[in-house]
Write a structure and sequence with these properties.
mainly alpha, two-stranded parallel sheet, DNA-binding
Length: about 100
DNA sequence: CAGCTGACTTGGG
DNA sequence: GCCCAAGCCAGCT
């Protein structure tokens, strides 16, 4: 059956391996619509805590942390660092490439 | 029902 | 490679 786009995004987020990061657009693409990156953002806002999602493993396609709120920004950096993924003050994540869903 | 929103993406200069 | 402008989608008010 067809789950809503949002629901699928939740499923995908739960499958992102530790130490890996992906972009909003990629998640959107895996969920079925590459153009719905903004919708992915909504999911993180509405269901991140509710579903215990690894929202910190999702960054912008440029490889930067995209959070506006400074507190959340720092929090994401910390969470990523805990998994071995480091980012500098600019929020630029130092990683080779994005997770594209194969590992699972 | 129409409009707004948002932690984005891509293309062009 | 950096900055700016326009585009896009699904859920909410």
């Amino acid at each position: 059956m067809e789950l809503s786009f949002t629901r699928r995004v939740v499923e995908i987020l739960n499958r992102i391996p530790e130490g890996q990061v992906t972009s909003y657009g990629i998640v959107a693409g895996m969920a079925g619509n590459p153009r719905a990156a903004r919708q992915v953002v909504r999911v993180l806002h509405s269901s991140s805590k509710k579903y215990n999602l690894p929202w910190h493993r999702v960054i912008s396609s440029r490889g930067y942390i995209a959070i506006k709120d400074p507190a959340g920004f720092e929090e994401q950096k910390a969470l990523l660092a805990a998994e071995g993924v480091f980012a500098d003050e600019e929020g630029k994540v130092k990683i080779e490439g994005f997770w594209i869903g194969y590992d699972d």
